[in-house]
Write a structure and sequence with these properties.
Keywords: Membrane, Transmembrane, Transmembrane helix. This is PQ-loop repeat-containing protein. There is one protein chain. This protein is an all-alpha fold. It has a single domain, classed as Monooxygenase (Up-down Bundle), CATH 1.20.1280.290. The protein is built from 5 helices and no strands. The N and C termini lie far apart (54 Å).
Length: 91
């Protein structure tokens, strides 16, 4: 039962990132719409989610690993879109 609670929490944690990742991908060609998204925030999120995955793996806590992987994927997508957009706009 408690593991099910962990998976529900993981799904909730992952779902909060999906709208921002979708927005970044959808507006990847519009630097004005991407400007308010903080690159530093998502770089920090990537680092802490990598730590979360490591912790979950060492404790055999699958819900923690699932949440960490989902969050890391979303944060990585956002960072990639932001970096590409900013590099394109410097040219």
């Amino acid at each position: 039962m408690i593991e099910a609670v962990g998976y529900v929490g993981s799904a909730g944690a992952a779902s909060m990132w999906i709208p921002q990742a979708w927005r970044a991908v959808r507006h990847r060609a519009d630097p004005d719409l991407l400007a308010p998204i903080s690159l530093a925030t998502y770089l920090v999120a990537m680092a802490f989610n990598a730590l979360l995955i490591t912790y979950g793996a060492t404790k055999s806590a699958a819900p923690v690993v699932v949440a960490g992987v989902a969050n890391l994927v979303c944060a990585t997508v956002i960072v990639a879109v932001l970096l590409r957009s900013r590099a394109r706009n410097r040219r």
